[in-house]
Amino acid sequence: MGRKVRIGIVGAGLIGKAHLRNYAKIADAEVVAVCDVNEREAQNVAEQFQVPHVYSDFKELLKRDDIEAIDVCLHNNLHAPVTVAALQAGKDVYCEKPIAGTYYDGTVMLDMAAQCGKNLHIQLGTLYRKETKAAKALIDGGMLGKLYHARATGHRRRGRPFIDGYGTPAFLNQEIAAGGALIDMGVYHIAQMLYLLDTPKVERISGKGYREMEVDARRAQQAEFNVEELGLGFVKFAGGATMDICEAWSIHLGSIEGCSVVGTKGGIRMPAYSDQAVLAPFSYHTTACDIDLNCTVNLDEMDGRWNQLKENYDAYASSQHHWIAALQGRVELLPTAHIALQTMLISEGIYLSDRLGREVSFDEIMEHSRSTAIPL
C-alpha cells in the first residue's frame, strides 16, 4: 500500500469501462472523475463505478488540480490531441493502445511528454503476461544466445469489430481508427516481440493488408469498412535481426501458431491463442549434450513463487498496476511509449509498403507519415 493516485478518465465507452474495472482492483488507484461527450453515458458509468464527478468537456476536467493522471480511452485518432492537452495541463498520461493513428502523431506525444517533464504510458497488456516475464527471464539469463528472429502473430476465426457482432463501426473507419487488425490486435504482439528483442531500430519493412472475407450485408450498410482484416509484414532491423507478422481479425484457418523468438542457443514459443482460447502452451527449445530439448513451464507456479520472492513484483501484474506503482515511485516506468511508437512505425510501414507495392525504408516511412489526429 502506498499513496493514493487520483485519476480522471476521458472516454466512457468499451475501453473506458474496461479500465475502470481494472482500477477497481488496485487499492491505491482512485478514479475521481469520468468524462465523455455523451454525458448520459458518462453519468451511467460514474454511477456504476461510484465515480463522484462527471464531465462532458475534457478541458474542464483538466482544470482540476486534485487529479494527477489522465487515462485516455478514446478512438485512435483522438489519442494525440487529448494526450497533448493533458500533458500541457501538467498531468501524467496513460493512453490506450495504439499510441496514436500514425508515427507522426505518436512522436508529437512523446516529444510533448519530454517537454513537459511528465510520464506517458501506453497500454500494452502483453508485456505483463506470465509468458512474457518467463521469456524475458530466459533471454536475460543468456539461454537464447544472440536473438535473430521473432514472429508476431494473432488470430481470430471471425472477429471483425461490428461486422461480426461486437464493437462499434468506428473500428472499421480509417479516418477514426487509422487501421484495422494490425493496429487493433497486432500492436499487442508486435510490441511484445519488440520488448523481448530490446526494441531494435527498424531499417526496412514490406507487407500487405487484406479485406477479402464475406461481410454481413446488413452490417455492411451500417459501416464504412476500409481497413484491413488481415495484416502481413516482414521487418529488417539494424544489426541483422528480423521479424515476420501475421495478424488476423478474420481468416479461414482454425488457428495460427503463437508468437516466437529464436536465438543462437535456444528459442521460445509463446502460447497460441484463438478467440481467447489457449491452443498451445509456453515452451522453451534448446540443444544440450547433443540432445534436442523441448521444455514446458508451469507459468502459474513461476508467477506465484516470484510474487512471494521478488520485490515489487505486484507492480507488473498488469499495465495499470505498473502505472500506479510507477507514479508512486516504487518502480521505474517501462518504456512503453517508445515501444508503442516503434510498433506504430512498423504498422505504418506495412501500410506504406502495401500502397507502394514494394519494400520501404525507415526514412521513407518518416517522410510519408502525416498527422491523422482529429481536431478538437
In short:
With 376 residues, this protein is an alpha/beta fold. It contains 13 helices and 17 strands. A hairpin with a 4-residue loop joins β9 (230-237) and β10.
Give a verbal description of the structure.
The protein is of the alpha/beta class and 376 residues long. 36% of the residues lie in helices and 24% in strands. It contains 13 helices and 17 strands. It has helices at 14-23, 39-49, 58-62, 79-88, 103-116, 130-140, 174-177, 181-196, 217-221, 299-309, 319-327, 336-356, 362-368; strands at residues 5-10, 29-35, 53-55, 69-72, 92-95, 120-122, 147-155, 202-210, 230-237, 242-248, 260-263, 266-269, 272-274, 277-280, 283-288, 291-296, 360-361. The strands form 3 sheets. A 9-stranded mixed beta sheet has the order 16-15-12-11-7-10-9-8-17. Strands 3-2-1-4-5-6 form a 6-stranded parallel beta sheet, with helices on both faces. The longest helix has 21 residues, at 336-356. The radius of gyration is 21 Å and the shape is globular. The two termini are 38 Å apart.
What proportion strand? 15-25%
Task: Supply the number of helical segments.
Answer: 13
- DSSP E strands, number: 17
- What's the average pLDDT? 96
> In percent, how helical is the residue content?
25-40%
Major β-sheet strand ordering: 16-15-12-11-7-10-9-8-17
SS-derived structural category:
alpha/beta
The global form is globular
In terms of per-residue confidence, which ranges show pLDDT below 50 for 5 or more consecutive residues? none
What is the H/E order?
EHEHEHEHEHEHEHHEHEEEEEEEEHHHEH
